[in-house]
Design brief:
The complex is a heterodimer of chains A (326) and B (286). Chain A has a two-stranded antiparallel sheet with strand order 1-4. By secondary structure, chain A is mostly helical. The radius of gyration of chain A is 21 Å and the shape is globular. In chain A, helix 2 runs antiparallel to helix 10. Chain A contains 14 helices and 4 strands. Chain A is 74% helix and 3% strand. With 286 residues, chain B is mainly α. Chain B contains 11 helices and 2 strands, in the order H-H-H-H-E-E-H-H-H-H-H-H-H. The chains are: A mainly alpha (326), B mainly alpha (286).
């Protein structure tokens, strides 16, 4: 194992240990934990969005898929009374099957048309949730969604999800597992196939790649994780309504990914982290908060076109230029 | 359902349809010439309505003069925005999406903070109802329809008849070749942004004379505008008119039998279906 690889693994383990002991430093009910949990949800959303974008499809119904997952899981638990631990993967599967059903006809649409058609899918999902009062509760949504079922192993563990700390560890595990899966996909040969579909679909077809199948595959896997994020969200806030999954939120997810940088695996993660944190850090300036947020977006796009991850590179280039003159 | 109610549906459908067309034409121009989706177009529509209200009510000027000044001001703002924010991102859809998201926040927040809680409505110069053989139609809606048609016609003749208009068509077809033919794409983009923003402001002011103003009216307008473009086909004026009228009639008629929300759902499903049959829109090109 090279020294560089060892160093990377070591720094990630240090980061993980820091994240594990963080609740002990912050206290059991700290507001900071809530912020971290929201960051976790956003990281799942943007990273899975990046997987779909790898095949050249800008999916703007990611929040719609999250909405499906959230409603699916909440209804399964509230109305059908099944265990939350079963409802979570089922919610992911609901989003995944919805994505594969609409994914097939949508592969005919290219570029901006795909993006726009998916916006409408998200709107349809939201409006149906708003309208189908007998099932979804209409405008008021679903309230009193139960917490995840407690995990009790005698003498070893007693997690009943009554505090934020429990939810924090839950989302931490979820994020780590999902990121590992996505990273696995990223470093496997299939990611090369995804990129080739993005770069030149006709050329990829000539090499015998089933581009339609790969585009649907990426769309479905990405939507699966969005559904999981939605299910977690519904059991965490314990009440959902259609307005939670509005048009602005759809754009927000794309903004997180773009500001972080779509090219690198870590880009969207960084973007979600920074842009979820910024509004919280400046919460005293509540009135001016949107201006700060807007300024961050515009400045990043102008000066770091490849996103926040390219900051060290740009900085290095900048100092090198300076040193030359000195 | 009586004839009078059906007639109301026709009038409402025409009115919303032509408003959607005004929004969509400007958005379409920016999409095809600059290659971006200007999501803050809805916010320009909203601010145009507010400015028209202030000129009309606080300064006490004539309704038409108020709309005229408001369109000029927003057109000017459009030119500034094009120069400062959008020119570096011409042809980059995702980057322009982020920029326009920032712009939405910059334009919307001041209005939310200052006038968010007050319900304004621009007083229409026309009152009363028009009665044709027992069917009653309110005059102010008829006025909105006629003004929108007039604006659309003016836009059509500008694009088809003038030299700048032809240059715009050329730039929308191929920016590089247009540059080789001596067309300044910068100049054409600035004019496009002026026209688009001015039409959006006019549409907002017209809507404001029927319904009340809210800081969030823009997101409704942008959704409808995008829907019309996708339905009609990108870069096509007649496509936008047909698409706008289809959506307008869905929104005008369906609420008579069902509800407004269901009208929205039907409209969106209609678009998705048409997209699947004709991915380039009704009158669009490949």
């Amino acid at each position: 194992m090279s020294r560089r690889k060892l160093f990377t693994i070591l720094s990630y383990s240090v980061l993980l240990i820091l994240l594990i002991i963080l609740p002990l430093l912050l206290g059991k009910e700290a507001y900071a934990l809530h912020v971290l949990i929201m960051i976790g949800i956003n990281i799942i959303l943007v990273s899975s969005l990046r997987l779909i974008a790898a095949t050249g499809q800008l999916s703007l119904c990611h929040i719609g898929m999250m909405c499906l997952g959230a409603y699916g899981s909440a209804l399964l638990v509230v109305k059908a009374g099944i265990s939350t631990w079963l409802a979570l993967p089922i919610a992911g599967l609901i989003a995944m099957s919805a994505a594969s059903i609409i994914g097939y006809p949508f592969t005919r649409l290219k570029g901006i048309y795909f993006a726009m058609a998916t916006v409408f899918v998200a709107e349809v999902i939201r409006l149906v949730a708003n309208q189908w009062r007998s099932l979804t509760g209409g405008m008021g949504g679903i309230i009193g969604i139960p917490r995840p079922d407690p995990i009790i192993i005698d003498g070893l563990m007693n997690v009943d999800f009554s505090s934020k700390t429990d939810f924090y560890y839950f989302i931490l595990i979820l994020v780590v597992v999902i990121l590992l899966i996505l990273y696995g996909i990223e470093s496997s040969p299939i990611s090369m196939t995804f990129w080739s579909v993005q770069q030149d679909e006709k050329l990829a077809q000539s090499l015998g790649i089933n581009t339609t199948m790969h585009r649907i595959l990426a769309f479905s896997i990405g939507s699966f994780f969005a559904g999981i994020a939605g299910a977690f969200y519904s059991h965490y806030v314990m009440s959902i309504n259609p307005d939670t999954f509005s048009f602005l939120l759809i754009i927000n997810v794309v903004v997180y990914a773009m500001v972080g940088g779509m090219r690198n695996f870590s880009g969207p993660i960084l973007g979600a982290f920074v842009l979820t944190l910024v509004p919280e850090l400046f919460s005293e300036l509540k009135q001016f908060m949107p201006f700060v947020f807007a300024a961050v977006l515009i400045l990043v796009m102008f000066f770091l076109p490849e996103g926040l991850v390219s900051l060290p590179k740009v900085f290095k280039k900048f100092t090198k230029k300076r040193l030359k003159y000195v | 359902v009586s004839a009078s109610v059906l007639m109301q549906g026709v009038v409402n459908g025409l009115m919303s349809g032509w408003i959607y067309i005004l929004v969509a034409l400007g958005l379409n121009l920016l999409m095809s010439i600059m290659g971006i989706v200007q999501l803050a177009h809805g916010e320009i529509y909203m601010i145009g309505a507010y400015i028209a209200y202030f000129i009309c009510v606080w300064a006490g000027l004539n309704f038409f003069l108020a709309i005229f000044i408001s369109t000029l001001l927003m057109g000017g703002l459009g030119i500034i925005l094009e120069r400062v924010l959008f020119r570096p991102f011409r042809g980059q859809v995702e980057a322009a999406l982020v920029i326009s998201m920032g712009l939405i926040l910059l334009l919307q927040t001041p209005i939310v903070v200052t006038y968010g809680s007050s319900a304004f409505s621009i007083p229409s110069p026309f009152h009363g109802v028009l009665t044709i053989s027992g069917i009653r139609i309110s005059w102010d809606r008829v006025m909105v329809i006629f003004l929108s048609i007039a604006l659309t016609a003016a836009f059509f003749f500008f694009i088809q008849g003038t030299k700048i208009g032809r240059a715009m068509v050329a730039a929308s077809q191929d920016r590089e070749v247009a540059t080789l033919m001596g067309i300044s794409v910068d100049y054409v983009s600035a004019i496009a942004m002026f026209l688009g923003s001015a039409m959006a402001a006019a549409a907002g002011a017209l809507v404001g004379s029927i319904f009340s103003l809210t800081p969030f009216m823009g997101s409704f307008a942008i959704m409808k505008g995008i829907a019309v473009i996708i339905l009609g086909g990108m870069g096509s004026i007649s496509g936008a008119i047909i698409g706008g009228l289809i959506l307008g009639f869905v929104d005008g008629f369906v609420p008579i039998f069902l509800s407004t929300q269901i009208a929205n759902i039907i409209g969106l499903i209609l678009i998705i279906l048409i997209l699947l049959i004709r991915p380039q829109g009704l009158l669009g090109h490949e």
